[in-house]
Predict the structure.
Amino acid sequence: MSKANNRLPRATTRAVALLFSLLLVTTTSATVAAEEATRGGALSVMVENDIFARRDGHYTNGLGVMWVAARGTTAPKWAQQMSTLVPWLPDEGELRHGYMFGQSMFTPKDTGNPNPPPTDRPYAGWLYGTFGIGKDSDRQFDLIAVTLGIVGPASLAESSQKTAHRWMGNTQPQGWSTQLHNEPGVVLSAQRSWRNVVRGSVGSLSFDVTPYVGGTLGNVFTYGSGGTAIRFGSQLPTDLGIPRIQPANLGSGEFSPRSGAGWYLFVGLEGRAVARNIFLDGNTFQDSRSVKRDPWVGDIQYGLVYDIRSVRISFTNVLRTKEYRSQDKGDRFGALTVSVNY
C-alpha cells in the first residue's frame, strides 16, 4: 500500500478521536450545567434568524441556551481555578459562572442552487458549548469564556435547516453538499465592560451608557472588538443587557427580578477587527470553499426589553456591514430572547 493510502486511515483515526474527545467534553459540561441549574439562576433562550428581516441567507439562524448562576452562589472549583489563571481579573468583585450551548448556520444568498458560485458565502454549521466566568464589581464586569465545538456536517446544521423548512413549508436548501468539512473548534474569549460611564434621567425615565472592549482567539473566530450600549427606560436594572450569540457581544446573561413590570429601549454599536472567521475563510487544515473576508465589520443593534417579575422578553434588530468582499450589501436579522430568573 502506498504512503498516500496509508495517510487516509491515520487522518481518519485522528479525526474520530478528536470528535470523540469533543463529544465527551461537551456531554460532561452539559451534565454539570444541568446539575447546577437546579440550584437557581437565570436561564435564557435566544433565537437569531433572518426571517425577522424577511430574508434568507448568509447568517440564517442561531439558537443558544444560556444559564448563569444566581447572585451569591458559591462558584465551583473549576471556576475558582480558572479565575486564578487570568492575571488581569480584578481581586474585588463577585465571581460568577455560567454555561451556553448553541448551534449556528450559514448559507449563501441563493439556497436553491445546488452548486453556489465561489463568490458567495459557503454553507457551514457550528455546534458548540461554552463555559465561562465573570468578575462582577459595582462598576465593572470582566468575562472570560472557553468555547468548544464542531464545524461541518457533524454540527447537524443541514438536518436542522431542512427540518425547519419542511415544518414551515418552505423550499428545501439544495447546496449543503458543498459545506465546510468537519473541524473541531476552540475559541477563547475575553471582555471587559464599564457600567454607567454616563447616566442620568429625563423626568421619571433613566438612561445610561456602558462601553466595552473584548476579543477572541481560536480557529473559528479571531478578532478584537469594542462598542457601547445605550439604554433608556423605566427603572433601569443593574445588569449588562441581553445575551447574544458570537460574534456579537456575549453579555452577562443574568438579571434581577422586579417587583412589578419595567421596560427599556436600547441601541448598541460595535466594531470588530477580524483576523479569522472560519465561516468565510474556510477550513483551517483542509481545502474548502471560502471567500475574501473583510477585516472590518460593524454592527448596529436596537430593540426593546420588557421585564415582568422574573421573566424578561426582548427583541433586537441587527444591521451588520458586509463581511466579505464579494457580498453585495450588508445583512439584517432579528434576535428574540426569553429569560427566566428562578
Remarks:
- The first strand starts at residue 41 and ends at 49.
- Residues 10 and 16 are 10 Å apart (CA to CA).
- The radius of gyration is 21 Å.
- Confidence is low (pLDDT under 50) at residues 1-16.
